[in-house]
Amino acid sequence: MSRTKRSLPPVPPEDKPDSAAPAAAGEALDESADGAGQGAAVRGVSAEEIAQDIATAIVEKRLPPGTRLREEALGKVYGVSRTKIRAALLTLSRDKLIQIVPDRGAVVSKPSVQEAREVFAVRRVLEAEVVRLFVAQARPRDFERLEQHIHIERTTLEPRTSVGSAREKLLGDFHVAMAECTGNVTLTELVREMVARSSLIAMLYPSSNDPHCSSDEHEQLLRVCRRGDTAAAVACMSDHLQRVEASLRLDAGIPERQLDLVKALLS
After folding, report:
1. What secondary structure letter does DSSP report for 40?
2. Does residue 224 sit in the same domain as residue 190?
3. What is the pLDDT along the chain (267 residues), one digit of tens a residue?
4. Could you list the residue ranges forming a coiled coil in this record (predicted)?
C-alpha cells in the first residue's frame, strides 16, 4: 500500500481520571481533525492509503494501543466519507493493528503477552525463509541498499536523545527491506504485518535492549549473508529475534506507566 503524503496528526495523552477518559480520547482526536483544517481534504485519497497512513501513525507510536479511532473524526482528517473510513478500518482490522469492538467502534489493538510470544515465533519462521532466499539470490545492489539502511540507523541512533519511535521504526524497516530484496511479495507482506504488530508490542512491553545492539546485529547478519553461509545466516537472524523478544518486559505484564497512558485514551 502506498503511503499518503499526510500523516495522521498525533493524539496527545491527557492526565485525567478514568471517568473522564472517554471524553478525553474523543476530544483529542476531534481536535486533531479540526486542526487539520481545510488541508485535511486529501484529494483522491483511497481507503488503502488511509489505512497505510493510520498504520504508519500506529507504528510510529503516535496512536498508542487502546486509542479509539472515531469514524467521524477520521472522515474530517482525510476529507472522505465514513464509508471509505470503514473500508480503511476493516483493512487495519485484518492486519490486527486495530480491533472493531461492538458498541465502541475501532480501537488500536493491545496485544496480550501470549500474542506477543506468538508474533515473535511466527517472525522467526518467516524471516528464516527471508534469509534463505536473500543469501541465494541477493545482488550487489541489495547489499548496498541494506548497508545504506544500516548507515541511516547509525546516524539516527547517534544522538541519544533522538525520538525513540523513529529509531524503532528504522530498525523494523531493515527486516522489511531484506524481505523486499527477495522479490517474494507475499512473504514481504507477511513480514511487514508482523513487524508492525511487533511495534505495538514494544509500546506495551518496553524493551531493555539498547537499539545500538540491534543495529550492530543487523550489520553482523549482513556480513554472514555476504559469506554465503545460509545456515549461519539463518541462525544469526533467529538469535537476533530471540534477543529482541527476550528484551521485552513480558513476564511483568503491561507496565503501570503504559496502563495510565492507555486509560487516558480509551473510550
Report:
1. G
2. yes
3. 444 444 444 443 433 333 333 333 333 444 434 333 333 444 578 999 999 999 888 887 788 888 899 998 899 889 999 999 999 999 999 989 999 988 889 999 999 999 999 999 999 999 999 999 999 999 999 999 999 999 998 888 765 544 555 667 788 999 999 999 999 999 999 999 999 999 889 888 877 776 667 889 999 999 999 999 999 999 999 999 999 999 888 865 554 444 332 332 222
4. none
Alpha helices by DSSP H, 97-253? 113-137, 140-157, 164-181, 185-204, 211-227, 230-247
**Chain mean position to CA 103:** 26
Q: Do residues 68 and 25 touch, judged by C-beta distance below 8 A? A: yes
Q: In this structure, is residue 47 part of a structural domain? A: yes
* 121 and 90 both lie in a single domain: no
Dist CA 88 CA 46 (whole Å): 8
Residues, the chain: 267
Coil vs helix vs strand at 229: coil
Residue 210 shares a structural domain with residue 105: no
- Does 120 share its domain with 218? yes
Q: Which residue reads 470503514 in cell numbers?
A: 86
**Domain's final residue, options 109, 142, 162:** 109
Strands 98-101 and 68-69, bridge-based pairing: unpaired
**68-69 sheet: strands from edge to edge:** 68-69, 105-108, 98-101
Please choose, from the candidates 112, 259, 133, the residue with its C-alpha nearest in 3D space to the C-alpha of residue 191: 133
CB 33 within 8 A of CB 77: yes
Q: How many Å is the Cα radius of gyration of the chain?
A: 19
| CA neighbor of 242 nearest in space, from 219, 212, 209 | 209
**How far is 184 from 139, CA to CA, in rounded Å?**
15
